[in-house]
Amino acid sequence: MRRISAIVCCCVTLAVAGAAVAGDLRKEAADRFDHGLRLFNEGDNPGALLEFKRAYDLSGERSILVNVGLVYAEMGRPVEAVEALDKALAQPAGIPDAQVERGRRVRDEQSSRIGRLLVTTNVPAQVEIDNLVVGRTPMAAPVPVASGIRLLAVVAPGQVPVHQEVAISGGQQAEVAVELMPLQGALAHLVVHSALPGADVLVDGKLVGRTPLPASVSLPPGHHEVSLRRPGYRAIPGEITLADGSTGEVTLEAAENSDDAAQVSGQIELDINQSDANITIDGVPRFRTDLSLPAGPHRLSVTRAGFLPFERELTVDKGLSKTVRISLQPKEELRNAQARRRRNAWITVGAGVVVAGVGTYLILQAHSDQGAADTAWTEVYKTLQPGGSCHGVAKGEDGYDACQTAVARVNKMQDDANLKKWIGWGTAGLGAAVLATGVILRIVANNTDNVAVAAGPHLQPFAWAQPQGGGFGVLGRF
Fold first, then answer.
1. How far apart are CA 470 and CA 63, in angstroms?
2. 242: which strand partners?
3. Contact indicator for 340, 419 with CB cutoff of 8 Å
4. Predicted local distance difference test score (pLDDT) of residue 16
5. pTM of the predicted model, to two decimals?
6. pLDDT tens digits, residue range 341-352?
7. Model confidence pLDDT, tens digit, residues 115-138
8. In CATH terms, are 5-111 and 261-330 the same topology?
9. Please, is 275 exposed, middle or buried when counting C-beta atoms within 10 Å of its C-beta (0-12, 13-18, 19+)?
């Protein structure tokens, strides 16, 4: 997928200026901007878009609005991209020149991908494109629409809804005339749920939208068959009966079709910072990080006890391989546990430094005491040599006790120096060990891979169904 280098290379550091913006709002805007950049770099364009838009709402910084437009462009939504970029570039003061140039270039590129659609009907009606309302008839002017094959729905009270595909060319205007027919009864509404994104939703064999549907589908009352259609999948059809004016819901499932999945598949490798995380794709548990999936969009969910869940939409390209890097972030209680571990690690480091310092002081003091003992022994030794005051003095003679006292004092000085030296070396060694322990604890405490989860077994039940059968199981950590 083509990335937007401007967001990484050209966007400036967020500056939420203005005395009217309170400090806490400024901080929230900066945090959301940074989070948006991180999500974008992880490939989560919808998440990045939400964070950028919130940061812009808080700050009013137009450079952020440029990024909003760039993300819309990356998501294949040229109408919204041009709208955001036009608003930002209308007053480019304060936006770096490189970002302004990039914004104008992307705006011109996206404009070429926008066509115009004019719908006329025999009665006033609501016009929807890809299940989103874009206007009502009679239209005052054509509405801008992203080029490509778009799904048009025309709905009016008391009339049979019309669903059809329309080809929109960039820079061109398409005109569609719709003849609505009277309906017996009141319109019903169908809400479709499916864990599989990017699949065609068929009602009575007719295309009415693509998952995930942003709104309900208007239908005539009565019995309807509903199913999904997507290459590489085998659908499990559903049925529903809708009364006049009622709203019904149906959940549709689809399983990978081994018969043609190999011809339409691509490869992904999940690089997750938590080795024992639980992985689901399109609502189905996965037990490997290297996967072969049908090409197209997929919904990825990664969870682990004690960590914030990670969810994003990823696109698999046919015949290609990509790596998706995922960094699970610890919840507040685990962040607090990390903070305590870091604090305890620093306390341990400090204690190690103090103990090692005491040991070093004792070693130096022992060295000094040993020098004094050696000097004293030299003096005593002289008295014991021929001609010395203690030489040949027998027990009971004058000076004997004084000589013995002098020798004993020197021996004690040497013993005390040796004892202090050994205590010093032992204390210094203990301090070094404590210091090394503290350093290791600090390294470990800063690594979220080693954050402890709640004690005891962790069990997560799951179930799945597909045309060949289904099952129930439990993911667990003991």
1. 50
2. 222
3. no
4. 33
5. 0.63
6. 888 888 888 888
7. 999 999 999 999 999 988 999 999
8. no
9. exposed
Confidence category of residue 447, pLDDT binned at 50, 70, 90: low
Dump the DSSP string for 399-467.
THHHHHHHHHHHHHHHHHHHHHHHHHHHHHHHHHHHHHHHHHHHHHHT-GGG----SS-EEEEEEEEET
Q: Are 250 and 192 in contact (CB under 8 A)?
A: yes
Dist CA 478 CA 476 (whole Å): 6
- Estimate to the nearest angstrom the gap between the alpha carbon of 247 and the chain centroid: 36
Q: What is the pLDDT of residue 23?
A: 64
Closest CA to 3 of 35, 44, 47, 50: 44
What fold is seen in the domain 261-330?
Immunoglobulin-like (2.60.40)
DSSP 9: I
Question: What is the C-alpha to C-alpha distance for residues 262 and 343, in angstroms, rounded to an integer?
Answer: 52
Q: Residues with Cβ < 8 Å from 222, sequence gap 6 or more?
A: 188, 241, 242
**Residue 432 pLDDT more than 70?**
yes
The single residue listed with the structure tokens 């499916």 is 194
What one-letter code names the amino acid at 167? A
Angstrom distance (rounded) from CA 209 to CA 228 = 10
Q: Which residue has the higher pLDDT, 443 or 64?
A: 64
The residue with tokens 């003096």 is 379
By the 8 A CB rule, do 334 and 451 touch?
Answer: yes
Nearest to 68 by CA among 33, 101, 97, 93: 33
Mean pLDDT on 286-290: 90
- Write the DSSP assignment of 212-251 as a string of letters: SPSSPEEE-SEEEEEEEE-TTEEEE-EEEEE-TT-EEEEE
What's the CA gap between 318 and 347, in Å, rounded?
A: 54
> And the tokens for 379?
């003096």
Q: Select 5-111's CATH number: 3.50.50.60, 3.30.479.30, 1.25.40.10, 1.10.620.20.
A: 1.25.40.10
Domain boundaries, the chain: 5-111, 114-256, 261-330, 332-450
pLDDT of 227 higher than 90? yes
DSSP character string of 275-335: TT-EEEETTEEE--SEEEEESEEEEEEEE-TTB--EEEEEEEPTT-EEEEEE---B-HHHH
Q: Strands 238-242, 310-316: parallel, antiparallel or unpaired by DSSP?
A: unpaired
